[in-house]
Amino acid sequence: MVVPVPPMEVLPTVFPRRHIALFGPSFGEGGVARDIVNLANGFVRAGMEVSVLVNRPNELFMEQLYPEVRQKVLPSRSDRGLARELLVFIRAHWPAVVLTTEERDDGIAVAVREELKDARVRFFLRMVTTLSVRLANQYRFRLNRALYRRKLRRIYSRCDGLICNSEGVADDLVSFLDLPRGGIAVLPNPTVTPELLAAAREPIAHPWFAAGEPPVILGAGRLGRAKDFGTLLKAFALLRSNRPCRLMILGQGRQKEKLEAQARELEVEADFELPGFVSNPYAYMAQAGLFVLSSLWEGCPNVLIEAMAVGTPVVATDCRSGPREILQGGRFGPLVPLRDPAAMAEAMAETLDLPLSSAVLREAVQGYTLESSIQKHLEAFFP
Fold first, then answer.
1. Does the N-terminal peptide bond of residue 321 adopt cis geometry, omega within 30 degrees of 0?
2. Are residues 175 and 320 both part of a single domain?
3. 290-335 pLDDT, tens per residue?
């Protein structure tokens, strides 16, 4: 999807033109991938030379990169091969900064840093999730967690700088890996962009969003365990038993069939829909009556910020760690316990009855604008 973008001014900056390479061979289809694109475009607007290094051509969202961004495919499928290709790229272009955004890429980048041995190139690693909670859910056995924890501590202690997207993620990284807090910069996600706000104004042809229809409750994200859409579905069933409403969850993943079966068991399938991946989720967010984040863990959930940026009321689980920071302790939307459908349904009903104004919600996420995020990243890269 190509979104018309309003005229933009070049971001004010005191930094000279420098080269930033975003190393993302683990480029996916979620919030991290959108962050890479937004960061790349934002750095261009600030006068930087920018390269994005991926593993495959035509990755999702890559068409949204500005023409000034150099796109480079590193085709190797092995870590060793990617390290060799990254080293060749660095020696050919000499970026001042290499920034990674996924754990696998972090290890490759640190190996290259140690091979390169050149202080002119600084390597920054970006952590965007609550590591201890994710590993506790990912690794069943303590020994496996301990071994992986040791590996990550070795990687994160050998970079030039660590970036976290929330205070909670930073605190968790310090306590879980026993890292010094002074070496970690907490920088906001570059979530609220001109492209997002322009896309939110596009019309939707879906009949559920027609005038006079019941309110649509929206969820979004990969259909996996971390997002706990099963609890959202149970909460929706409780809410729907008392008032007309519908539930739509944007995204794709392994739990699609499981959620559809659960909807049939709860007898809400007529008012439940899983449309899959949607290229413009912002238009859906803008017209939804309510956005709900039901996650078991997060770092700094972009979808929650995006919903607020388009003026939609929100409800979120009080998971570690992003929602409490974004909603300022519940000031801008209720925080509910994990895996508690009754509490979630109650919060959903109260928010539908007494929503905060769109202006208040938009103002609450001004710290996550592209301009603010880029300026703070550049201050960390070029002190």
1. yes
2. no
3. 999 999 999 999 999 999 999 999 999 999 989 999 999 999 999 9
Contact 301, 323 (CB under 8 A): yes
Dist. CA 365–CA 332, nearest whole Å: 10
Using alpha carbons, select from 297, 302, 338, 332 the residue that is nearest to residue 317: 338
Domain of 209, in residue numbers: 204-364
Q: Is residue 61 part of a domain?
A: yes
CA dist 69 → 49, 114, 120, 273 (Å): 7, 27, 21, 37
102 versus 196: which is more confidently predicted?
Answer: 196
Query: pLDDT class for 13, splitting at 50, 70, 90?
Result: very low
Instruction: Provide the domain count of the chain.
Output: 2
Each residue's pLDDT tens digit, 105-117: 999 999 999 999 9
Helix axes 167-177, 142-156, angle to 10 degrees: 110
| 115-126: burial string, b at 16+ Cβ within 10 Å, e else | ebeeeebbbbbb
Q: Tens digit of pLDDT for each residue in 366-383?
A: 999 999 999 999 999 999
For 300, which DSSP code?
S
Furthest C-alpha separation in the chain: 65
